[in-house]
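Class, discuss our next protein.
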Amino acid sequence: MSKARTLVALAAIAAAGALAAILPMRAASAADCAPAWNASAVYTGGNTVSHNGRNWSAKWWTQGEAPPGSSGVWADQGACGPSTPGPVNPGASAGFVVSEAQFNQMFPSRNSFYTYGGLTAALSAYPGFANTGSDTTKRQEAAAFLANVNHETGGLVHVVEQNTANYPHYCDASQPYGCPAGQAAYYGRGPIQLSWNFNYKAAGDALGLPLLTNPWLVQNDSAVAWKTALWFWNTQSGAGTMTPHNAMVNGRGFGETIRSINGSLECGGRNPAQVQSRINAYQRFVGILGTTPGGNLSC
C-alpha cells in the first residue's frame, strides 16, 4: 500500500503579485523498528521492541504483556518503519497478518505441498478470516487456525490420512449422490483432513469445485487444500456449537475451536494430551505473531 505524499504550500512571494506554488515533499522517514515483541520473551528496563508499527521501551521487568499494555511498563517511542510502509506485518501478503517468514518459522519441516502462496491464494474464499476485529483478534485467529492445522497434519507434513485402512469407511452410500469417485476415495486430505463424501460435496458446492467427483484436487492443488480447511473453519461447527471463526472473533477462545474440530474425541477430559498439543502450538504461534493467547485455551 502506498502512502499519499504530503503537499506543503510554499508561498513564493514576488515583488508584484507573484503566484503561490504547491510542491510535493516526502514525509520524513520514521525510526527503524526494533526487534518485534515476543510474548514468551523476558524484557527488562531499557529493552526496546516494536509492535504494531511503533517502538516501545520497557521501564521494568515484563513478560507476556503486549505494548502498550495496561500496567504502564511500556513507554511509547513513536512510529517506526519506512515512510511508505507495506503491510502492518512486513513480508506478509496484503491483508494477511502472517508473513512468509513467520509461516516458515511455524512449520520448519513442512511438506513442500503446503505453500505460503497456496494459503494466501485461498484467503479470497473467506475474506473475513483473520481479518475481523482488532489486530490482536486477527493474529489470534490466524494462530488458532494454524495451530489446529499443525496438529492435524503433524506440522504440515501429512497431505493425506496415514491410516489407509480407514479409506473405505468414508463413503456414506445412503446419500442421494452416493460416492461417484469410488468407495475408498473420500479419505482425509489437506490441512484439516477433509473426509467423507458428504463433506467433499458440501465443501465443493461452497467453493465451486467438483470435489465430489474429483476429491484428489485436495491433495494435488495447494490452494484448493487450503480452501477446504478455510471452508471448515469459517462455516462448520463440527462437534461444537459455533464455527472456529466465530469462536475466535467473539472471544470464546482457542478451546472452543478444538471443540468444533475434534471435541467429541478430545474435549471433556477424553484426550487431554491431544488438547495440550494443540494449546502448545497455539501459544508458540501467537508468540511468533507478537500477540497474546487470550483466555479459554482448553475445552
About this structure: Residues 1-30, 82-93 have pLDDT under 50 and may be disordered. DSSP finds nine helices and seven strands in the chain.
